[in-house]
């Protein structure tokens, strides 16, 4: 919205552009304190203050003292209603340049920003979809009129429309593992487009639907027998976790290896059992791969991990130098780091796993509620 | 529990349940009890935080087939 005076609306997409461009913004978050402390809008040039809307029922004078005059102000709440209520009063009090976030944190959680990762040698492109509010990353390989989507998020329309705009038909949807922090859109997208849904069999022991098995040696081709997706068994975050090497250039690591952290092994309740798998994957399997592969993870934890245009990517060799999770020499120290003092689990992670197995079928609204909050899949997310 | 006032905010979304509740509570005498009915799941945490912060007393809270019921005693 253009208006600089009075009250206007900011969309999640516009807020994303502000965060990525490091534009200055002051946010008044009017949700309750515990929701705010759990999860909020973050950005390197964003200042944020929390005053619950129910503390402002008698007027906004107390809030005005905490809001710098003359700076762009965005009022945020869970869904929108309360932020509009407060923002209107702030405008009535004479402030200008006031906006509220359309759809609130729910919209923020669901916004996906597509970013081009690069060209593929065999022709075609690789795209990353940044779910900036929750820290999830999906990928689309597009080549010769065909597409494959990896770690598809629940908002399947975004992928369908994007593929359509590229003139590509979605042929495959792949999940690197059974997700615990968000509801996979892989099965739904496959059903809607007639694509094949692929899952690692070791994570799919309890699923209630048919799928194709992601196994080493079963390469997947996208487009005119050009782009290869090579599955690479890499257990640790879950027992089935599988990485993909795309076009011999990109290593899609799922929730095993992130840019500034590594995956936690406890979300399926087997931390102790899977520590050695995780260590083996990170300290041996990945080490044996070409070190000039670009790592593309399924999550980011901090906004500092966002690079150019929001892209989250790093060279494998750089991660072996800089990522603390790859630099723990002692096996015992590693074991402690990935099993003790872990961050809280993602919201509703048990129900999310059940849903991804097809054992629960929550409504759209319930799914949205389940996914509230940050992803918390890494060891170092605090 | 017998309430002196029953406030129906069913179907209303944030911030209206609490806006209405505040107004209703302002009209009560100390010691009186207000029952607030709401269907807005998102308001549940807000309602509890709000009552705590107003220093009134949240006597009980329950959910009955999608309707949230709060009993608040004015102090």
Q: How is this structure best summarized?
A:
The complex is a heterodimer of chains A (382) and B (75). Chain A has 382 residues and is of the alpha/beta class.
Helix and strand arrangement:
The complex is a heterodimer of chains A (382) and B (75).
Chain A: E1 7-10, H1 12-20, E2 25-29, H2 33-38, E3 46-50, H3 61-64, E4 73-76, H4 81-92, E5 98-101, H5 104-110, E6 113-119, E7 125-131, E8 136-143, E9 146-150, H6 156-165, E10 169-174, H7 186-193, E11 196-199, E12 212-213, E13 220-222, E14 227-233, E15 242-246, E16 250-254, H8 271-285, E17 294-297, E18 314-315, H9 316-322, H10 331-339, H11 349-356, H12 364-370
Parallel strand pairs in A: 1-5, 2-3, 2-4, 4-5, 9-10, 10-11, 11-12, 16-17
Antiparallel strand pairs in A: 6-7, 7-8, 8-9, 13-14, 14-15, 15-16, 17-18
Helix pairs in contact in A: 6-7, 8-10
Chain B: E1 5-8, H1 16-26, E2 33-38, H2 43-54, E3 57-64, E4 67-73
Parallel strand pairs in B: 1-2
Antiparallel strand pairs in B: 2-4, 3-4
If you had to describe this structure to a student in words, what would you say it looks like?
The complex is a heterodimer of chains A (382) and B (75). With 382 residues, chain A is α/β, with parallel strands linked by helices. Chain A has helices at 12-20, 33-38, 61-64, 81-92, 104-110, 156-165, 186-193, 271-285, 316-322, 331-339, 349-356, 364-370; strands spanning 7-10, 25-29, 46-50, 73-76, 98-101, 113-119, 125-131, 136-143, 146-150, 169-174, 196-199, 212-213, 220-222, 227-233, 242-246, 250-254, 294-297, 314-315. Chain A folds into two domains: 7-108, Oxidized Rhodanese, domain 1 (3-Layer(aba) Sandwich); 112-370, 4-Layer Sandwich (Metallo-beta-lactamase, Chain A). Chain A contains twelve helices and 18 strands. In chain A, the strands form three sheets. A seven-stranded mixed sheet of chain A has the order 6-7-8-9-10-11-12. In chain A, strands 13-14-15-16-17-18 form a six-stranded mixed sheet. Chain A has a five-stranded parallel sheet with strand order 1-5-4-2-3. In chain A, β8 (136-143) and β9 (146-150) form a beta hairpin. The longest helix of chain A has 15 residues, at 271-285. The radius of gyration of chain A is 21 Å and the shape is globular. Chain B has a single domain, classed as TusA-like domain (Translation Initiation Factor IF3, 2-Layer Sandwich). Chain B has two helices and four strands. Chain B has helices spanning 16-26, 43-54, and strands at 5-8, 33-38, 57-64, 67-73. In chain B, strands 1-2-4-3 form a four-stranded mixed sheet, covered by helices on one side. The two termini of chain B are 17 Å apart. The model of chain B has no long low-confidence stretch (mean pLDDT 93). Classes of the chains: A alpha/beta (382), B alpha+beta (75).
């Amino acid at each position: 919205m253009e208006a600089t005076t009075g009250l206007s609306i900011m969309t999640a997409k516009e807020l994303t552009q502000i965060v990525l461009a490091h534009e200055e913004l002051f946010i008044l978050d009017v949700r309750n304190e515990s929701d705010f402390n759990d999860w909020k809008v973050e950005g390197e040039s964003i200042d944020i203050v929390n005053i619950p809307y129910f503390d402002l029922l008698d007027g906004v004078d107390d809030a005005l003292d905490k809001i710098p005059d003359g700076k762009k102000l965005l009022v945020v709440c869970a869904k929108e209603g309360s932020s509009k209520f407060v923002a209107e009063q702030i405008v009535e009090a004479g402030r200008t340049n006031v906006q509220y976030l359309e759809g609130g944190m729910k919209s923020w959680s669901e916004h996906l920003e597509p970013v081009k990762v690069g060209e593929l040698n065999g022709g075609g492109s690789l795209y990353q979809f940044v779910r900036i509010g929750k820290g999830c990353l999906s990928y689309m390989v597009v080549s010769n009129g065909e597409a494959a989507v990896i770690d598809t998020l629940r908002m399947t329309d975004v992928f369908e429309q994007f593929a359509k705009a590229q003139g590509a038909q979605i042929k495959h949807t792949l999940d690197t593992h059974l997700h615990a922090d968000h509801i996979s859109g892989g099965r739904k997208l496959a059903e809607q487009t007639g694509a094949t849904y692929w899952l690692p069999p070791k994570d799919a022991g309890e699923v209630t639907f048919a799928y194709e098995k992601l196994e080493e040696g079963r390469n997947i081709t996208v487009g005119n027998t050009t782009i290869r997706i090579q599955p690479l068994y890499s257990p640790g975050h879950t027992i089935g976790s599988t990485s993909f090497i795309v076009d011999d250039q990109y290593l899609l690591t799922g929730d095993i290896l992130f840019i500034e952290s590594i995956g936690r092994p406890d979300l399926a309740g087997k931390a102790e059992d899977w520590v050695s798998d995780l260590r083996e994957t990170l300290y041996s399997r990945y080490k044996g791969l070409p070190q000039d592969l670009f790592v593309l993870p399924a999550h980011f934890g901090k906004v500092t991990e966002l690079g150019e245009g929001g892209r989250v990517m790093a060279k494998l060799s750089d991660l072996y130098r800089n990522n603390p999770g790859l630099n723990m020499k002692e096996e015992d120290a590693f074991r402690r780091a990935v099993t003790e003092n872990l961050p809280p689990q993602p919201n509703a992670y048990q129900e999310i796993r059940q849903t991804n197995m097809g054992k629960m079928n929550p409504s759209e609204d319930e799914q949205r509620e389940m996914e509230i909050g940050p992803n918390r899949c890494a060891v170092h997310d605090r | 529990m017998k309430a002196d006032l029953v406030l129906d905010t069913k179907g209303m979304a944030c911030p209206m349940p609490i806006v209405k509740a505040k107004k209703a509570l302002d009209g009560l005498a100390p010691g009186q009890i207000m029952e607030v009915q709401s269907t807005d799941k998102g308001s549940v945490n807000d309602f509890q935080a709000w009552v705590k912060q107003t220093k009134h007393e949240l006597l009980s809270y329950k959910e009955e087939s999608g309707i949230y019921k709060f009993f608040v005693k004015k102090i």
